Amino acid sequence: MQAIKAEMKKRNIKAKFLGIHEYFKDYSTKEIDERRLVDDIKQTNPSMVVMVICYSQILCLRFLLEGAGIFSEVRMNRDLCLQSKGQILTMSETQKKFLQTMAQPENIEKRIVRIEGQVGSGKTLLGIEVLKMKIAHYMRSYGFSPKEGKEKLRAKIIFEGQGSAQMVKVQIEKELIEEIGKYSTIEIEILPYDITIGNFGKAIGYLSKRESMKTLYTYQKNILLMDECFADGKVIDYYTVGQPDVAIDFIQCFSYYSLGYANEPNYKEVDNYIKEDIKTDHEGYEGCELVWCRLLQCQRSSQQILDLANFIVRHTKLLFPPNIQSRKSFDGCVPTWIKASGIEFVQYAKLVLTSLKDVMLIYKNNPDRAPREIVELCSKMNWKYASTSDITGSESSVVILYIVGGWYSYEAYTRAKHRLIVVEKFSSVLSNIQKGIHDKEGCKLYAEQHLKRYKTMPVPCQYEDKPQLIPNLMEVVDAARYLKNLEVFNSLMRKPKKMMLPSWI
């Protein structure tokens, strides 16, 4: 015990013990003063919560702390710390305030929760945490046993079909089954390619054909999380307004392409439009109970990866995401462009990239399937691999983009957390970066389009007057030259050395 205490002191780890008996309103009934208990735990701001009480009390206490958003904060802080390798220790103030807002009694049962924001800002993670909070709240509110919860509460997650999201589906399904699957029904579905969440009415129509009203009424509460939504001005649907007795709560996580559109046409504060914000009502959605949140801080990818991705978007006249981040992300490695064909890259990877961990190779080919040599390489190196159509919501510490045909995707670039590697024999876009070329026309056009769409100017371009900084956005490796030099070196090492004879012979 003394050794443990010494280690805790050394690492500045503090523990606080709360006796449940200290929070009894009445010892005879053992009713807990829940508000005081929750407030004391929040004041402690724990990184870990350990409950040492009997099973039934653990379940009740778990639902209390889950519904209060305490566990959500702990999980989010943990994930951000791990993701940034200790550079981000806590959630952003907006994320924290949003969870606290959702935990309030007047908000937790509101039927519509809308989260919009930039790529990698934590929209999906927050949406899932809200889902967990709602399930825990309804378990307590209805007084369900775990068995009753399985029969009466349903959590359903729907992903946009255009980016099939198979990888994130598996990940989230495993997480939810472990955490709330014992006391609620869990379903995860990916919409077909011809059905998009962007066309909300069509998506709901598709779902309603598969799920009759009888099915919906089977459950006392349905919680529907829709990820990668596209705002089309018709988000409030028939179920939520026309039939208030249908027990559905909606959680909508909007694609970053909808930032700025998700609130049109009724948002009047145009001058202050693009800000991180939280609202518990919304102009134009009278009769609908709403909690709305906007996030602008990118937290998934390092700043070096974001710098390269944003530069390419800004200077190539491509479809553009918003560039309005107010604070920098965490530090990581400078992205790498490996100039290589398929066989060259396979040879190079086996020699140089063997130490990489948590790797996902994303391939873009024509047809859209990985070449055999790439599949074999990923299998040998224990790398995940996926096509560009299957990466929505996924992420890895290291992402390798295997490209054929000069293709670019902001979505693919920002799947990487710490290290990004682009594999392509020739790329005019990357070549211009290597040469330090700044496209002033493209930069100006991007700013004009950004202002028109998002009602605000983008972050000022730091390269317009300093083109010498552009090559610093990435490092370049010529795989063919590396392999040739290695071959020459090995050849020299294999040659027998000539015997040096004395000069007098």
What this model shows, in words?
The chain is an alpha/beta fold and 505 residues long. It has 3 domains: 68 residues, no CATH class; 208 residues, Rossmann fold (3-Layer(aba) Sandwich); 185 residues, Rossmann fold, CATH 3.40.50. It has 18 helices and 15 strands. The strands form 3 sheets. Strands 5-4-6-7-3-9-8 form a 7-stranded mixed sheet. The chain has a 6-stranded parallel sheet with strand order 12-11-13-14-10-15. Helix 8 links the parallel strand 4 and strand 5. Helix 3 crosses helix 6, helix 5 runs parallel beside helix 6 and helix 13 packs parallel to helix 14. The longest helix is centred in the first third of the chain and has 20 residues. The chain is globular and about 85 Å long. About 4% of the residues have low confidence.
Which labels suit this protein?
about 500 residues, alpha/beta, Rossmann fold, seven-stranded mixed sheet, six-stranded parallel sheet, 18 helices, globular
Question: What's this, in brief?
Answer:
The protein has helices at residues 2-10, 34-44, 55-67, 70-83, 93-103, 123-142, 146-152, 166-179, 200-210, 213-218, 238-242, 303-315, 342-352, 372-381, 410-413, 428-435, 440-454, 479-494, and strands spanning 24-26, 31-32, 112-117, 153-159, 185-190, 221-229, 248-254, 277-279, 290-295, 336-339, 359-364, 384-387, 396-403, 416-423, 475-478.
